[in-house]
Amino acid sequence: MDCIATKFLVVLLSLWLSCIHAIQTGRFPAILAFGDSILDTGNNNKLMTVSKSNFLPYGRNFPYHIPTGRFGNGRVLSDLVAEGLGIKNLVPAFRSSFLKSSELPTGVCFASGGSGLDKFTASIQGVIWVQDQLKDFQSYIQKLSQEVGDAAKVKEIIANAVVLISAGNNDIAITFFATRAKKLRYNIETYTDQLIEWKTTFMQNLYNMGARKFAVLGTLPLGCLPGARQLSGDLICLPHVNHGAKIYNQKVANLVVKFRQSLPDGKFVYIDMYNSLLDVIENPSKYGFRTAKPCCCSVMTPVPCLDSGSHVFWDFAHPSEKAYKAVLPNIVSVISNKLA
């Protein structure tokens, strides 16, 4: 009997500790994700665009092996951040036909793969421009009001939600470096200045709509993406592309500081995606990977690798779920410490 009682107490203690952990980590009621494919959980599925991923082998490691429109082999960064913060395990796409009203109070994703701050970036791919994602956000607020039925509660949810923003990757990697359209008018300094102007307007609009807790992601090391490295014969990262990403990221970090100073009732934090992922790329074995090149699945290798967990990158531009998990602890720690 003593043994049974001891086991029972151990189980109760375990449950109690789990509840305490949930309370401690669940300091944010919701997550609201804006931007590009790093966060997109399926908003492109019904668009007339080639920037889609709602087909196999995408989603190969997702629950039940379902391709949901996430640009990866499993969950993407928005899902993992939400889980790490104790909000929920999966962040539904706002434009999903399967979105349940009960999901609205804990947040949704508005991000669109291939999108950017530059309208040209979104238009050439037929995806949802970052500024237009605010229209979806306004629609979300209306639906949230209907679900919650209390204006004060709606305001509280939005003000305390983590607003996760990833924008600039496609503007720099595609619009500036892969097309000639912008190089005729800008150099990298002036183009990134323009991106910062657009980002400032976007964040200010979000603030005006009630958002108060912003986690702003810098770009990935864009010159090290498999699609970029192929241009060098897979030998090196493209230094000029990485240089452009670093220039932009520094300006984003400075912008976050300016917002923090000018809007003291808001909380703003910069998330360094560049250096955290670069360390994984340069030291794959340190994080349990076999290689950072090539990617697991590409147009050159239509049959994906057998073990996506051995590759830092799933496809030509997107990290694998395991790679996101490698950089996740620092992201969750920064958000928890700076935005709570």
Supply the helix-strand structural class: mainly alpha
CATH class: Alpha Beta
User: Could you give the count of β-strands?
Assistant: 4
Low-confidence stretches: 1-25
Sketch the topology as an H/E string, one letter per element.
HEHHHHEHHEHHEHH
How large a portion of the residues is in β-strands, by DSSP E? Answer: 5-15%
Q: Radius of gyration from the CA trace?
A: 20 Å
Silhouette: globular
CATH topology: Rossmann fold
Count of DSSP H/I helices: 11
CATH architecture: 3-Layer(aba) Sandwich
Give short descriptive properties of this protein.
GDSL, lipase activity, 340 residues, disordered N terminus, signal, Rossmann fold, single chain, 44% helix, 4-stranded parallel β-sheet, 6% strand, 4 strands, SGNH_hydro_sf, mainly alpha
What features would you describe in this structure?
Keywords: Signal. Pfam families: Lipase_GDSL. The chain is mainly alpha-helical and 340 residues long. It has a single domain, classed as Rossmann fold. Helices cover 44% and strands 6% of the residues. Strands 1-2-3-4 form a 4-stranded parallel sheet, with helices on both faces. Helix 7 packs parallel to helix 9. The protein is globular and about 55 Å long. The N terminus is likely disordered.
Write the layout of secondary structure elements.
Layout: H1 2-25, E1 31-35, H2 77-84, H3 119-123, H4 133-148, H5 151-160, E2 162-166, H6 169-176, H7 188-208, E3 213-217, H8 226-229, H9 239-262, E4 267-271, H10 273-282, H11 321-339
